[in-house]
Amino acid sequence: MSKKLTTVEMGRMSVTEYREADKLPLVVVLDNVRSQHNVGAVFRTADAMRIERVLLCGICCCPPNQELHKTALGAEESVEWQYYKETLNAVQALKAQGYKVYAVEQAHDSVTLEEMAAQITPKTAVILGHEVFGVQQEVVDACDGCIEIPQYGTKHSMNVSVTAGIVMYRLSERMRGL
Asked: Per CATH, which fold does 34-175 belong to?
């Protein structure tokens, strides 16, 4: 029978150690994500995958925020973040820093997450959009491409924080060479 690990047995690093640790060159951009809980969940997953940073754009809430904290559980203290009023400005800044920027969106020329993972390069950013409207079209137009997670049921979308988790996990796994 398996016994759950204690926090001490897990050997988790402190916030200070986390901030000093090497990060994957992966940036997550949230384009007008309205739910504070979704934003917090993205922070928590970003911490778990040790990605570089999260960019919050438009109507996204920013730390400190009690509702965000409920799902982030302190990850908003460890993960670097920045706020941009306009998502297009975040895209332009990332491109100027040498990032390839991809919208996670169903589009005519999208590639599957697996195809994207196979060709991942350092300095990659992914943009996830509003819970109802997705990534703004003008933002999609400014991206280097679109990534799509194949779906096989009756729904045509998934929760943004679930999608972020799938994308961060798969791309970080590939970046780590697993």
From this structure: Alpha/beta knot (3.40.1280)
